[in-house]
Amino acid sequence: MQIHELRLVSGAKARRRVGRGGKRGSYSGRGVKGQKSRAGRRIRPADRDLLIRIPKRRGFHNRPKTEKQLVFTIRALDRIRSRAPAGQPITRETFRELSLVPKSFRGRIKILDGGGLTQPVTIKGLLVSKGATMKIEKAGGKVLPS
After folding, report:
1. In a domain, 56, yes or no
2. How far apart are CA 29 and CA 20, in angstroms?
3. Which of 16, 102, 123, 144 has its CA 20 to 30 A from that of 57?
4. Average pLDDT in the 137-141 region?
């Protein structure tokens, strides 16, 4: 079979082409005269042209207003507890000292329910989900506000 031997499916609706005589009229829905009625390239948006003229700003993005939230599970807390100083609550500083969070990190740290605790843990000044709070208290630990 070759391309000239192909036949249209009977009953198929042909795509209407505008500006080929018949329906739509002589201007083909473009109106009369003017840049928008002509063929060829369209007008460029002015702000894009400005960006291209100033290469220094091209690809620049402002820093996000809020940093992303870091999430840890209870399973991770169990490992952190074994590395952290004994008898002290786990705080934001504990995460920094153990290099789990960059020193420059200003976002929130949240503990989520995932896994189980083998030893009691005290958490201070971190966001903790309801499920995680229940598991921490069940293991004999505490969640303290900041």
Report:
1. no
2. 12
3. 102
4. 90
Q: How confident is the model at residue 41 (pLDDT cuts 50, 70, 90)?
A: confident
Please report which confidence band the pLDDT of residue 22 belongs to, taking 50, 70 and 90 as the band edges. low
**Partners of 122 in the β-ladder:** 142
Q: What is the mean pLDDT of the chain?
A: 84
> Which H, E and C letters describe the chain, residue by residue?
CCHHHCCCCCCCCCCCCCCCCCCCCCCCCCCCCCHHHCCCCCCCCHHHHHHHHCHHHCCCCCCCCCCCCEEEEHHHHHHHHHHCCCCCCECHHHHHHCCCCCCCCCCCEEEECCCCCCCCCEEECCEECHHHHHHHHHCCCEEECC
* pTM score of the predicted model: 0.53
Structural domains counted in the chain:
1
CA–CA gap between residue 38 and residue 35 (Å, rounded): 6
Segments forming the whole domain that contains residue 91: 70-144
- Any idea what the CATH number is for the domain that residue 76 is in? 3.100.10.10
